[in-house]
Amino acid sequence: MAERYFPAKADMVPDIAPLRGRHVELAELEALVSRARGGRAGALVVSGEAGVGKTALLDHLTARAAAHVRTERVVASQSEMELAYAGLQQLCRHMMGSAARLPAPQQEAIEVAFGLRSAAAPSPFLVGLALLGLLTEAAEEQALLCVVDDAQWLDQASARALAFAARRLDAEGIALVLAMRQPDPVFAGLPHMILEGLGHEDACELLRLAVPGGLDLRVRDQLIAEARGNPLALRELPRALSPAQIAGGFTLTSSLPLESRIEQSLVVQLAPLPAPARLLLLLAAAEPTGDPGLLWRASAVLGLGPEAFDAAKDAEAFVVGTRVGFRHPLVRSAVYRAASPGDRRRVHAALADVTSAEHDPDRRAWHRASATLQPDEEVAADLEKSAVRARTRGGAAAAGAFLERAAELTPSPFHRGQRLIAAAEAKHDAGASDAALRLLGSARVLPLTALQEALVVRLRARAGYALRRDRGGAQHLLDAARGLEGLDPVLARDTYIEALAAATYGGRLGDAEQVTAVAHAILGATSAADETDRARDLILRGQALLATEGQTAALPTLRRAQRAFLEQAPDSLELHWMWFASRAAQDLWDPAGLRALADRQVELARAEGVVTVLPIALSLLMLVQMTDGDLDGAEASCDEIDAIKEVTGNPLPPYGRLLLAAYRGQADQAERLAERVRADGLARGEGHALSAANFSEAVLYNGLGRFAEAVASGRRELPYTRELNLAMRTLLELVEAAAHTGERALAEQALEQLAGVTRPVGTSYALAVLAMAEAQLRAGDDAERLFLDAIKRFEHERIPIWVGRCRLLYGEALNRQGRPAEAREQLRAAHRVLSARGLNGFAQRAADELRASGETLRVHTRGSAARLTEQELNVARLAREGLTNREIGARLFISAHTVEYHLRKVFVKLGIKRRTELKPALAGLTATASSA
Fold it and tell me: Would you kindly state where each structural domain of the chain is located, as residue ranges?
């Protein structure tokens, strides 16, 4: 293999020498390209210290691959880390002709991100999906290799988009290689190659090539020891030694880190260059786009002639061709860091002069800022405009950097405070809450208006809560909300709801007194319910009434709030509030309202690209689908939630998977997930997690006929039914379990509490639940009347799961009364509904009861999905629902090519030939492979 990569030693030249000993690494990189040529795809992160040979590997890879694949290569620059999507724009500059073939939301997202059109800020995930689409289109005719060197200098927005796309690569014919000094957490989970120093033998050979004359053995050994096998250090450090030092052993020693020593050596080598040539190199280092025309124009501003270019090229520091490039990325950083502040300002001023204010205003503003020492309102104002554009493109981190620098250059203390607050808010939105708090500390010493003071308090509370999630967060948010009353009522309401959410987050594990205090403050600050019809005000007051005065007092306001959310056109803020409206629909036992709200929230979140809201919206939709008996649809929603969680790191626990496993009677999976959810809830202080685990276990054990265990899980919720939601729904499960175990007193207690949360509501669904529960504790005609009333109401509300379960209970009761013929009629109907909907445990109960009545019925439980991978199942379910490849890709954040690839494998494994055969083929499968 060595002969494949390297010439004989006698022919070896310094450009190839750093590749010595890299056979394994080169083979892995070439294998990645080979997979792309074969129609597959993949990504690789290459990390290692500066000078260890990453760039040499990439040079070799791109040179060898150029004859077989399309290659796009960029080098990220430290000077552009604050420009949103700067790195991505360079990578995609030759691909944007394909943007028109992307789905409209993706095309708009990436064009807005690159400043090519004006629109609302795009979702980062839509930009990532658009990037995946562009790469796929570029690889349509020929496999594609994308290489990003010095990826540690990528701007945050570009890094996240690339990480997004890299994780979704599968079958597109794309190879993506990212080289960086230290592994960046944003790329965690991707295949990773760590590049280490050369071995002793290879290091000796490299030194021999770098220093053709005699080298004192003590100097050689010390250089090898100090360089730690770093190829660039081995080549560059000897150049800083005099002939006497090389021959006699009088070496240079330094306590500087190796990277600094390499840069120092590079600077020493460039020091003999004429001053104009060094200034030209600094100019090129400060302008990372590599545009030769821009470099020529800026050099003319500085009075640098052709002789400066000739001297720089003779020193082999950089090359000017179709693009300007340095012989090694470390040369760029060495030149820039070694320059004096005055020289840096000179070159940035020249670059600002020749950068188009119309076509590249943000880069021009940044150069102007870098050239400015004293406060300058004109420069600060340009930076503020750039921040607005960055926000529009979805670059919150970039907006924060622009605003922070704008504040530094603002002469007026008042406007400086204003910009510092805006910068802090942008930093918080970008996830840098600690940086936001630092900026707010700087703003405290400046003259602020009352509104600005209130905004500082609010932002400090929000950032602090985001960092600590402590019990004091609700009180700080409450103080901020009170401070905004009379200054910004809309923002005050938004802060009140955040305070209430923070206070109620813990449920039984939180502080009840704090919940009451926040709720009372909301009631004191908001108008009575009959004085407003705004959805936001109504839901805020309704939730506060629920927390302080209970369900009965809150019902009228919650009903009005729900109607308002359904009837009014929501603004962007209300999208985040719809979770409270959906929770109200659950507390109101209103399945139709919950369906409408869940569908609407999912639709809006998708349309606006609000992926932070989408998992919660999908969770609500999943509950609706399960209530409707569409367990397959619910599983598809879980698939989409998992896809988003994988991309975003959203910590939403697997509530949906847990409840699905419980309904399907999958004991091992449900018990494992319940244990995980319960432990997670205790660790995070989230009482809702305990309710989810208890409710799901009660459903599971009732379905399996393990009623004593269902009692144990259900009775844990008895003290907490005031929390409503899952806690109150567990009461019905507890009545059923206790009735079967003969614990009459416990069943009556659960029934009484259930009546307290259903009778006041009075909806058909609530009354059906109450009738079903009460029927289990009554006898004769009373029980029959209640069962029939419940069945009729469930059928009217289109809730098949409860129709089936109620008929099962009625059939069991008829069997106990010695009426087997009537029992069989109910049990056959129950079995038909329950088995068709996939409630295997309850269906088996119905079959067992039929057997007891004298009729044998075999339950056809669904088969194993072990033949299909989880991703294949995800794709197959959505294809079964009639979605196109592009639509499936958008849901699961993968490319249409990957969808097609997985569908082909699904067809082969299931022995089918077309999509219309998916529904019956998948009817025999269950999602045991999906346990996330």
Answer: 20-192, 198-252, 761-852, 863-924
